[in-house]
Amino acid sequence: MRIPTETLTAEQALTVEHALWSALRALEEQAAVRRRMAERADRMEKRITAERHAARACELDAQAQQVRNLVLAGLGSVEEEATAEEPASEEPAPKKH
User: Fold this and answer.
1) 92 burial via Cβ count (<10 Å: 0-12, 13-18, 19+)
2) Which residues does 49 contact at the CB level (< 8 Å), separation at least 6?
3) Is the pLDDT of residue 7 over 70?
4) pLDDT at 11
5) What's the pTM?
6) 54: nearest Cα among 24, 28, 32
7) How many helices (H) and strands (E) does the chain have?
8) 21-73 tens-digit pLDDT
9) Which of left, alpha, beta for 21 (phi over 0: left; psi -120 to 50: alpha)?
10) Is 64 left (phi over 0), alpha (psi -120 to 50) or beta?
C-alpha cells in the first residue's frame, strides 16, 4: 500500500510519515515488551502465558513490518513532492496602461 501523496500537500505527507514512524517505534517497543514477558513467564514455568505473549509479539512484529514497508514505499515520493511544491519566484505582471 502506498500513501497517495498526490492528494496530500507536502506538509500533510510529512506529518503522516512522522506519525507512521512513531507508530512503527511503538509497535516495535510493544513487541519487545511482549517477548520479555514471554521469557519471564517461561522462566516461571507458565507455558500458556508465555505462548500467548510470544504469539502477540509475533503479531506486533508483523504489524511493524507492514508499517515499515508502507513508510519506506512512500519516502521517495514525499521528498519529491516537497521539492516539487516549493513556490517558484513570481515576477509581478506588467502593468497595463
Assistant:
1) exposed
2) 38, 41
3) no
4) 83
5) 0.68
6) 32
7) 2, 0
8) 999 999 999 999 999 999 999 999 999 999 999 999 999 999 999 999 999 98
9) alpha
10) alpha
